[in-house]
Amino acid sequence: MPPIRLHVDHDLCEAHALCTEIAPEVFDLGDDDLAHCDESPPEALWPKVKSAASACPRQAISITET
Ligand code: SF4
């Protein structure tokens, strides 16, 4: 599987924090009230990352294969 690159669009994120609940190993809320993420999460966490992206009500999380 090719590596993935993860990105949170801060113009869309509204700090609903579903991503941090689903995949706390990868996402956290910063002092700026925006989600920040590990841009290259390990493969073992990809299922959680994909669940978080699907759950984001703002569709702020993008996953691209590199
Ligand atoms: S679920 Fe989406 S809107 Fe909510 S904090 Fe995560 S990226 Fe931002």
Overview of this structure, please?
The chain has one domain: Alpha-Beta Plaits, CATH 3.30.70.20. It is globular and about 30 Å long. The chain has helices at 18-22, 46-55; strands at residues 4-8, 27-29, 35-37, 61-65. The mean pLDDT is 96. The strands form 2 sheets. It has a two-stranded antiparallel sheet. The protein contains 2 helices and 4 strands, in the order βαββαβ. With 66 residues, it is of the alpha+beta class. The structure holds iron/sulfur cluster. The site of iron/sulfur cluster has 13 residues, from α1. Residues 8, 13-19, 35, 56, 58, 60-61 line the site of iron/sulfur cluster.
Features:
66 residues; alpha+beta; Alpha-Beta Plaits; two-stranded antiparallel ribbon; two-stranded antiparallel sheet; 2 helices; 24% strand; globular; binds iron/sulfur cluster
**Domains, number:** 1
User: How helix-rich are the residues, as a percent range?
Assistant: 10-25%
Q: What's the helix-strand series?
A: EHEEHE
CATH topology-level fold name: Alpha-Beta Plaits
Poorly predicted sequence stretches spanning 5 or more consecutive residues: none
Short synopsis of the structure:
The protein has about 70 residues and is α+β, with helices and mostly antiparallel strands.
List the helices and strands and how they pair.
Blueprint lengths: L3 E5 L9 H5 L4 E3 L5 E3 L8 H10 L5 E5 L1
Antiparallel strand pairs: 1-4, 2-3
This protein binds iron/sulfur cluster.
Iron/sulfur cluster (SF4) binds next to helix 1.
